[in-house]
Amino acid sequence: MAPAKRNAVPSDAPRRRSERTSTKRSSAAGELSHDAPHIDVVDDEDEEATSSAMADQWLFDIKAKLDSPTFDHPDLIQKLDPKYFNLEFVKQTGLVKPLFFDAPPTELGMKMPNAQRFGVNEVKKLVTPEREIEVVVVKTQTSRKMTMNEFANYYKKKAAQRKNLLNVLSLEFSMTPLEQKVRAPELIKSIDWVELYWPKALRKRQEYLTNPPADVSTYPKVQNYCLMSVSDCYTDFHIDFGGTSVWYHVLKGEKIFFMIEPTEQNIKVYEGWTLSGSDQNKTFFGDIVVKCARVRLVAGNTFVIPS
């Protein structure tokens, strides 16, 4: 649990917009690194059709949490003008609070695809239809493998035709054509340990492989992630691996986080809640800590979650 003490505990709540896309990047060394586009495209009618699937799994009303004043804690989040997001700011503050930016990507030195011309099909073309990806089955919070082509076909279906809610959270797209369409905030690239210190030659071994086996990985391939979710997808409370910091950019739609401070007390409560096993679906973790802040991101917003 040592790395966990350095990390916030976020949870993705159900999205309620018709189209959603965001970009996320994480660092393997506890410093900020880059993230990739998260793309969700969903019809409004899907929301009603998938609500019953969520109700079958969670014994609390997740959607009621989306508007409850209990989670209004703006003091836990810092809204920042991009012009102040620089190395001096990092040195002075230590990046203690999550940072919210409501500004065009260019003001952060970022590059993003054109939201009107970019969706799941474009991701499929750029990472190849044969690319094997891991998808999370929302109802059980377990994962399984499928190809990008299979997921794109699933994504196109109406909600009533989908047997399960599937959520893509870990499509790492470094060294694919998609990487050329995304650039992290300038500050993040400048302090990314992978960019600064990892030997460039060690990244070449995977450069042209569609599905590189794990045993050929010679660098921390955790810089660029594309997230894709249909309506009402939910990720339960968790701590990101290795005490990483991440940034998100929402390209389309809406994404909601529930953030909890990584205090010693909160970590102890989290450990007990995690070990409770089957009781997790009975208790919304945000209800059993002193403060849990809801953060709503819409298209164009950027969010930095420190380790």
From TrEMBL:
Residues 1-39 are annotated as: Disordered. Keywords: Iron, Metal-binding, Oxidoreductase, Transcription, Transcription regulation. GO terms for molecular function: metal ion binding; oxidoreductase activity. Residues 13-22 have a biased composition (Basic and acidic residues). InterPro entries: JHDM1_Histone_Demethylase, JmjC_dom. PROSITE patterns: JMJC (PS51184). Residues 192-307 form the JmjC domain. This is JmjC domain-containing protein. The lineage of its organism: Eukaryota, Metazoa, Ecdysozoa, Nematoda, Chromadorea.
